[in-house]
């Protein structure tokens, strides 16, 4: 089958690789009908995370059709249209029972090498093996587009969990650092729960224009502090969402939060350490937390919100192509010339 593989830092290619087969009785094989390219994929391909090897199939966002199931799979049938979490979970351990699937001991993250668990081949391919299929996969509802379902799998689940983790309330001033797909969907999620003012901080002018067109105020990072002061009468933001990853964005997030403000990071971090401003955090009673999207827990709620018209996550998709287009789409995304890209492996 054809798939997008990691070749070397910054380089992907489309190649022929073996078609996946059932390994465990709880596996399913999915014929991928749509796959996404995510900011996390860019981190992986750049080599920001360890454990990816040349020839590995990349990608963790997909929807498709079940074409084979292991003998222990109970909920899925051949021909089912499915959406997926970007990582696997067993569904029956203590962590899964608490709805905290990311901490399942059986977690594996599609297409990211061994950075976040055992290596598992990615989904930018014609077919993908899905462990713990009854938990990892969800049925694609009639009337939900594949593009919306793909975004619920990861990007929207991540944006929504940030808003949820922060305890965002109606009228809050919410700041989002980063205008990529996750940042934009975080902003839309904050608007959906009634945030009074949402400010997207982003250096790229096109991404600022997109955020402004979809209901947010915007600021270049150099102007972020003054913009937030003006929007809050000098108080600072109630909630700040860091959606880039890295120490610099975290430093800025801390500066923008008001006393007793909440900072939530959903950016992908590779640095081992960060100089935490503990004295200021103590004196201002700041709350700082980190969150990872969990569509296994959230997808039913997000499907209802999307079906009910609370927001349309697909507005962030501005590039579509075939599997053969993936290397060029990676280049455009890395250069911030596109916001979100999807590929159809069988066209």
Brief account:
By secondary structure, this protein is an alpha/beta fold. It contains twelve helices and 15 strands. About 30% of the residues lie in helices and about 25% in strands.
Outline type: globular
Number of helices: 12
CATH topology heading of the largest domain: Quinone Oxidoreductase, Chain A, domain 1
* Secondary structure tally: strands: 15
> What CATH architecture label of the largest domain applies?
Alpha-Beta Complex
Tell me about the biggest sheet? 7 strands, mixed
How are helices and strands ordered from N to C? EEEHEEHEHEHHEHEHEHEHEHEHEHE
CATH class of the largest domain: Alpha Beta
- Give the overall pLDDT as a whole number: 96
Alpha-carbon Rg, integer: 20 Å
Count of structural domains? 2
Poorly predicted spans? none
Description:
By secondary structure, the protein is α/β, with parallel strands linked by helices. The chain is built from 12 helices and 15 strands. Helix content is 29%, strand content 24%. The two termini are 13 Å apart. The chain has 2 domains: 204 residues, Quinone Oxidoreductase, Chain A, domain 1 (Alpha-Beta Complex), CATH 3.90.180.10; 133 residues, Rossmann fold (3-Layer(aba) Sandwich). Strands 3, 4, 5, 6, 7, 14 and 15 form a 7-stranded mixed beta sheet that branches. It has a 6-stranded parallel beta sheet with strand order 10-9-8-11-12-13, sandwiched between helices.
């Amino acid at each position: 089958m054809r798939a997008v593989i990691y070749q070397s830092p910054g380089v992907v290619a489309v190649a022929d690789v073996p078609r996946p087969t059932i390994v465990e009785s709880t596996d399913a094989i999915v014929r991928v009908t749509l796959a996404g390219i995510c900011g996390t994929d860019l981190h992986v391909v750049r080599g920001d995370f360890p454990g990816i090897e040349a020839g590995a199939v990349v990608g963790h966002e997909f929807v498709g059709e079940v074409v084979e199931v292991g003998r222990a799979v109970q909920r899925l049938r051949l021909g089912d249209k499915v959406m997926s979490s970007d990582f696997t979970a067993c569904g029956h351990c203590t962590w899964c029972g608490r709805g905290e699937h990311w901490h399942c001991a059986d977690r594996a993250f599609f297409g990211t090498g061994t950075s976040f668990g055992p290596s598992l081949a990615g989904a930018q391919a014609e077919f993908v093996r899905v462990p713990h299929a009854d938990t990892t996969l969800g049925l694609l509802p009639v009337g939900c587009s594949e593009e919306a379902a793909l975004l619920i799998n990861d990007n929207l689940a991540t944006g929504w969990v940030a808003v949820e983790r922060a305890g965002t309330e109606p009228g809050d001033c919410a700041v989002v650092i980063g205008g990529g797909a996750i940042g934009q969907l975080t902003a839309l999620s904050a608007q959906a729960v009634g945030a009074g003012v949402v400010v997207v901080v982003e250096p790229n002018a096109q991404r600022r224009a997109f955020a402004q067109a979809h209901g947010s105020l915007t600021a270049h990072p150099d102007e972020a502090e003054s913009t937030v002061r003006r929007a809050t009468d000098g108080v600072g933001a109630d909630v700040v969402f860091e959606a880039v990853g890295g120490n610099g964005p975290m430093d800025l997030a801390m500066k923008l939060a008001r006393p007793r403000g909440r900072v939530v990071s959903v950016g992908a971090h590779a640095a081992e350490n960060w100089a935490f401003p503990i004295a200021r955090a103590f004196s201002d009673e700041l709350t700082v937390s980190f969150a990872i999207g969990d569509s296994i827990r959230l997808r039913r709620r997000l499907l209802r919100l999307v079906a009910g018209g609370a927001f349309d996550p697909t507005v962030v998709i501005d590039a579509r192509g075939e599997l053969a287009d993936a290397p060029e789409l990676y280049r455009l995304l890395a250069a911030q010339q596109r916001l979100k890209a999807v590929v159809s492996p069988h066209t």
